[in-house]
């Protein structure tokens, strides 16, 4: 084994360590997100008061690693005060938005350097949260069935739930 071989082995080890570090950080973020959801669920309260900021923070934590893996940027476009309070079930809302983000990622078919926008704004005294991507979209043949039945849009075992936007 030459000195050059030692350097190459050390470089490979450093590269592996960086990958392990990134995955460990992602797992840590996910554990923290799950822990906060468990605490909320243990309150036996389906409805709580939370802010736009808290909602977006949970979404960011939950999706950060997957977005990094697929080289997709998540943009939060907040057109109202981030301290605006919402009464509801934050876990259910995070789940729905996370599902929409995963659908957006799927719509890019592995194409890197894409974006997903989450737009939070007021519309006619309602809070409107939109998840926007520029992926392949929903086939015309099933668009009229979107809110009537669960239709898988890809070949894996996902439920097929695809909501274009929600008003909460």
Q: Given the structure, what is the number of helices?
A: 4
Mean pLDDT equals 81
In the sheet with the most strands, the strands line up as 2-4-5-6
Low-confidence stretches: 155-168
Short description:
The protein has 168 residues and is α+β, with helices and mostly antiparallel strands.
Walk me through this protein's architecture:
The chain has 168 residues and is α+β, with helices and mostly antiparallel strands. Helices cover 47% and strands 21% of the residues. It contains four helices and six strands, in the order αβαββαββαβ. The strands form two sheets. The protein has a four-stranded mixed beta sheet. It has a two-stranded antiparallel ribbon with strand order 1-3. Strand 4 (114-123) and strand 5 (126-133) form a beta hairpin. Helix 1 packs antiparallel against helix 2 (52-69) and helix 2 (52-69) packs parallel to helix 3. The chain is extended. It starts with a helix and ends with a strand. Residues 155-168 have low confidence and may be disordered.
List keywords for this structure.
47% helix, disordered C terminus, alpha+beta, 168 residues, extended, 4 helices, two-stranded antiparallel sheet, four-stranded mixed β-sheet, 21% strand
Spell out the blueprint of helices and strands:
Layout lengths: L2 H39 L6 E4 H18 L2 E7 L6 E4 L1 H18 L6 E10 L2 E8 L6 H4 L21 E3 L1
Parallel strand pairs: 2-4
Antiparallel strand pairs: 1-3, 4-5, 5-6
């Amino acid at each position: 084994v030459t000195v050059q071989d030692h350097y190459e082995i050390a470089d490979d080890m450093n590269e592996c360590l960086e990958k392990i570090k990134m995955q460990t950080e992602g797992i840590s973020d996910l554990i923290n997100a799950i822990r906060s959801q468990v605490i909320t669920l243990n309150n036996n309260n389906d409805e709580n008061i939370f802010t736009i900021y808290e909602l977006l923070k949970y979404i960011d934590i939950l999706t950060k690693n997957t977005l990094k893996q697929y080289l997709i940027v998540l943009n939060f476009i907040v057109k109202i005060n981030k301290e605006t309070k919402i009464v509801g079930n934050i876990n259910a809302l995070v789940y729905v938005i996370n599902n929409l983000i995963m659908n957006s990622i799927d719509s890019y078919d592995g194409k890197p350097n894409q974006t997903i926008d989450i737009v939070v704004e007021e519309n006619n005294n309602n809070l409107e949260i939109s998840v926007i991507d520029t992926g392949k979209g929903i086939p015309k043949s099933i668009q009229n069935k979107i809110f009537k039945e669960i239709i898988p849009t890809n070949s894996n075992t996902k439920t097929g739930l695809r909501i274009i936007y929600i008003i909460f």
